[in-house]
Amino acid sequence: MAEMNMAKSINMALFEAMEKDSRVVVLGQDVGIDEGVFRITEGLHAKFGDKRVFDTPLAESGIVGTSIGMAINGLLPVAEIQFAGFDYYAYQQLESHAARFRNRTRGKITVPMVMRAPSGAGIRALEHHSESREAIYCHTPGLKVVMPSGPRNARALLHAAINDPDPVIYYEPKALYRLFKEEVPDEIEMMPIGKAQVVRPGTDITIISYGATMRPCLEAAETLAEEDGVKAEVIDLLSLAPLDTETFVNSVAKTGRAVVVHEGPRACGVAAEVVSRINENVFLYLEAPVIRLTGYDVPVPYFSKEKFYIPDADKVIAACRKTLRF
């Protein structure tokens, strides 16, 4: 069991999948010879050649459209969009075709493809390079959406995405690529899509999050335990479409309080859906209104202001204490 960061674990998953199944191909801008802007595809072109790892023009719609055709015809394409802020150019292909073929053909044709994209802020990037727009794809019937929060589940989720018969949006929190390391098993793991994890058990309040904001949520839970004696239960959603309603609803029924945290905009975001499902299922168990702690409904600000946009541990602690005081 080796220690590695998220960038390395995703790279490992691609290597493993390509070695295991010759149908897996990787395509995107600069993924081949240059090995990707974040080096996620490092070594793949040298190992598997330009028939299975190939560079494309700077044309997101073309990358995804080509992947759809490949998937329909028996391949398992993993398409990389260099930054999530540019995958809107491919949205028409995803919404009109990838998401609809199963329904359009009454199950005769599926689209087993993965669209990978670095997502979120935290690296002081330029405009269009820091977006968190996962809610758009969660709202698109026929697409599955996952977002890992660490090296181990990043590898396991990517294997699950590649092996899924339907199109999967695999968003990678780029702020986590090299932020920390954890142990990743030698054997291949595959994490089921549609299942959340309780990563820290507790009884007093439930903190629900995913992706990059899992780190500040866990830090907040530790501080609340040390300073306030509060036992916070922390849930990592992992899969955003479909959502594992049962796991977080059962937790909130137990604790009676909840804070939902994510980096993306507040309006119509994932947190809004989570809060709705809590209200629909366990409203009478609540001891306080559920709080949403999210990004703001503005473009991600540049450089010096970026840290004020992203939820951090102090903001999570403040939201939890507000809920506990109610």
Overview of the structural elements:
With 326 residues, the chain is of the alpha/beta class. The chain folds into two domains: 2-184, Thiamin diphosphate (ThDP)-binding fold, Pyr/PP domains (Rossmann fold, 3-Layer(aba) Sandwich); 197-325, Rossmann fold, CATH 3.40.50. The protein is built from twelve helices and 14 strands. The strands form three sheets. It has a seven-stranded mixed β-sheet with strand order 3-2-4-5-7-6-12, sandwiched between helices. Strands 9-11-10-13-14 form a five-stranded mixed β-sheet, sandwiched between helices. Strands 1-8 form a two-stranded antiparallel sheet. Strand 2 (24-28), helix 2 and strand 3 (53-55) form a beta-alpha-beta unit. Helix 8 (214-228) crosses helix 12. The protein starts with a strand and ends with a helix. The mean pLDDT is 96.
